Amino acid sequence: MLKFVLKRFAYMIMTIFIVITATFFMMHSIPGNPFASPKKLPAQTLKNLDKKYGLDKPLSTQYLLFMENLVLHGDLGESYQYPGLTVNSIIAQRAPVSGELGGEALILGFGLGIILGIIAAFKKNQWQDYTVMFIAILGIAIPSFVLAALLQYFFTVKFSILPTSGWGSFKYTILPAFSMALGTIAVYARFMRSNCIEVIGQDYIMTAEAKGVSKVALVYKHVLRNAIMPSITILGPQIAMIFTGTFVIEVIFSIPGIGRYFVESMTDKDYPVILGTTIFVAILYIVSVFVVDVLYGFIDPRIRLSGDKK
Amino acid sequence: MKNKKLWTLLLSAAMVSTVALAGCGSSSSSSTSSTTPDKVQHMSVAIPTTDIQTLDPAKGTDAYSAWVLQETMEALGRDEMKNGKETVVPAGAQSWNTSSDGLTWTFHLRDEKWSDGQPVTADQYVYALRRADDPNIASQYQYLISGAGIENVDDVYSGKMPLDKLGVSAPDSKTLVIKLSHPCAYFQKLLNFKFFMPQREDVINNQGAKYGSTASGLVFNGPFKIVSMESGSKIELVKNEDYWDKKDVKLQQVTMNFMGDTNEQMNALQSGEIDTMAVIEKEWNDKFSKEKNLVHSNLASPQTGYLTFNFKDKNKLMSNVNIRKAIALSIDRTQYLDIAGGGIGIPANDWIPSDVQVGNQLYRDEAKSPFSQLQGDPKKLFSEGLKELGMNPDTSKITIVDTQAGTDAVAKKQGDLLSAEIEKKIGCNVKVNYEEWKQYLQDGSNLNFQMESGNFWGADYNDPMTFMDMWETDAAATTNAYSDKKYDALIDDAKHENSQAKRIADFEQAEKILLVTDVPFATTYHPSISAFTYNYVKDMQILPFAPGSELKYAYISGKASN
Amino acid sequence: MAEISKDKFKIIGCENNNSDEIVRKNITYWEDAWRRLKQNKIAMFSLGLLIIIALMSIFAPFMRSFGVNGVDPTTTNISPNSLHWFGTDDLGRDVWVRTWAGTRTSIIIGIVGALIEVVVGALYGGISGYVGGVVDDILMRIVEILNSVPYLILVLMIIMLMNSNGILPLIIGMTLTGWTGLARMVRGQVLSIKEQEYVLASQALGANSSRIILKHLLPNVIGIIIVDVTLAVPSYIFAEAFLSYIGLGIKTPNISLGALCSNATPNMMFYPYQLFWPSLIISLIMLTFNLLGDGLADALDPKQRQ
Question: Can you give the residue ranges of every domain in chain C?
Fold first, then answer.
């Protein structure tokens, strides 16, 4: 077991390192000067700016400085666009917002999806089944931005029930979370439904029913626990995605999250922020995948044992 | 979608507010200023961006930071509407006088206190100006004080001289002296700029590297002070009881909400979540115009949209004056304004906008635009130009490449429309190259384009010079490599001249060279500020030359009955 | 019991080769799959709808005389009427023509992207699975690293890096990490087949690698590939639409459904029809591809073979 964990850990570190390095060099190759301004800056100003931010040094030196700061101090640098604001503080402010939104959407999507899937499976080919399937179809077909626009129109313009955009109390999160969740609901509903149907068809369910086990106990003890495993398989990586933030939703609803910030920093050519956000998101993702892998290793012995062969 | 272009910046910079003093409004109720204030004096406005850049007056290039600073700090002067004219009135300085040669400005400071009780002293202004010129801070607006000609300003900035050699000094705690190396006829117009706000060295040292990114621990000497600032969410202001003019401040609380999305702003205005907003789209304009409890203010904004022609064009086309004239003549400015600008503005048949003042007079009252002197048939002129270049005079064989700023829907409208107009009138092909803003600016500086469009030039201060010194040979080197000795001479003269009459004459000739003789660029339109404010807001001022709107005198009256 | 006399029975003979005869006609894997697909009404309906949409995208623009980029300032923002079936946008361009032209581009992007993904992914996974050993390890580690980078970040960087206005950087960016899923699946499949006894038998009989690949591995893998393609197309269309929202998708004068949607969203309050039509088409495309893909997955699943 330990060998498995160590191996995965080593890969994780290596991956993170490669990602950071690649991002750094890619980012500096993107054309455009971060200090380009419509008010044609005099040469002296540009010189001073370059000097201040260390941009006049050769690229490799900048890279080493950056890595040194990162590894030794955990410091991701200071934003160009917002002087005085460190990347760390930007992330600290914005990531929880994305996390909250993503988490809400995931809980909504997973929870509702699983429940709907179970209902559909048990009421197979009846109206409940068709309703759930219809919802699922909508979730697959309608792009999230279209859904977001529609929801905005109906709930904020036509009937002013919810705020249009922005971020604050819980009511600000309802529309964006739902826009993101519908697709997830669809996936889990269909998946759960087909898994449940498969499990229900198994002999041991028939046996349990014949033995007189109550419907509720049936669902919970037998069907659910067996059918839900594959869904958890997909859930893992999705948890990792919470923080990456669906930037389109964040843009449409003006949510101060990290996805949106990242996109803005790309157009602003705000190198430190681009780099910092990329690294943060990548690390989060990679670590989550690592954790999920290790957990599976505990839960499902087959994965552990076949790890080398596969 | 987000729109970071300059014109939206400055346009929504002068956002909100009814010019209540002038009683300007459409069909709705006339808002007089002698109504009883409500008990609750809380106003809510929108900052049309995700975040302000910084609260450090020496840094930051966005108009939004400048706006927040304007409401919370007091510079030597303040931009206000006085007798229907926009003027910079004494604020931090009670009065000032100039020496007869115009080179020494002496400011007599008011008795003022900071929000922590400390007095405002002259050396704090000295400290602030030194920071603005500090090469280690690398302020991007340094060119303003450089143009004003403060002694040694450029040598200090390049590091050749130490900070204390900058021509600012404080002979005593209530007197500030600024020495110029040449007279600056518009120096008074600069006094509300954030460089002229006092700064506290002790506070800044305390804040350290994070200075400007948070509001906690900061002190203020303006009408309001910041209670909290949540990045991406909002800024809360309350009345500053230590302000020297607090008797004129009636609002108790102001909430500034960050709203980067146009639809968000419009919906917020409609629902009353914010009290005022500037509108840039025709449909919203029409919609709000019909609302009974919204007062509409329409003010000219000192900006001009323009296209630049690259004199170092690799295909030689843009180096020919007839070709440039042809393109300038082929633009249907009214149509462009209507479609690309939502009809909110004035077609630009001049370069210097109508509300720019020279001294105390409106420039355009004194100097008529020479634009009508540019005549000719676009297609013929273009052909002539081709002939002069030794090329086939058939215009249909030519393809022009236009680099348009921005890749969003608004930019696409501008680019597509422009190319269609040129193609129609001249008969050549126009290919539009849409570039992200920073990329566009970069290519501009590197002269990597044939023709550039989508740019707007806005005034930094209230004088024609801010529109003219950019076309001098040195300055234009990275704009489009335009160079004209006659033009340079005129602008140089205007720079050192103290007599406004002489300057007007200089500018008049210079503008003719730009619009009729050389045509290094072509204008499109001047955007206007079209703002809607709820009728319970009184005495808020929209100032085209100042950022945001002036909330100092505003108050709420009659809101409860709304 | 009554006596049954021997002469009531006649010997008609016994031929050994008949014992192998199967009563029913021999159906190949493909015919069986097609048959099962045909029975799946939803999938067939989706297929039909898709074909209609594809045909429309080719021919529909010609039904009207307006150009894709025919800017006409006098006819801006007109609601759908008999002249402009879908109305006009804010530059006076006909929405019908633009929507179908956009559909064409979107479908092309989807198909090209999916094809690239499939070719690269299948080859990569196939080789990795077949060769095995160290090569397999290295190749799979590379896949893991690629997978660890959030897809969006990679796409954004590539597009900004290449900075041209064409479709190429867009497609490269999008496909750069897309193929990893298929590679894994193909590899998995190849690995499991490799261990089968009939492959061993084949090898024992002296079949060379290419024959094994062609006759045994490939047919078993194609099923997965087809399903993957069908599901990949909509995801690329969707990805391009997503990118259009940040301004990194298709650039003018080219138009895609995503670009149409993102242009129309700010106007949604006043001219909802501009957003409605491209959204409808894009939703239909996503839907039909997904349903078809589901149907194909069922039809091509060897476990369900009858």
Answer: 52-304
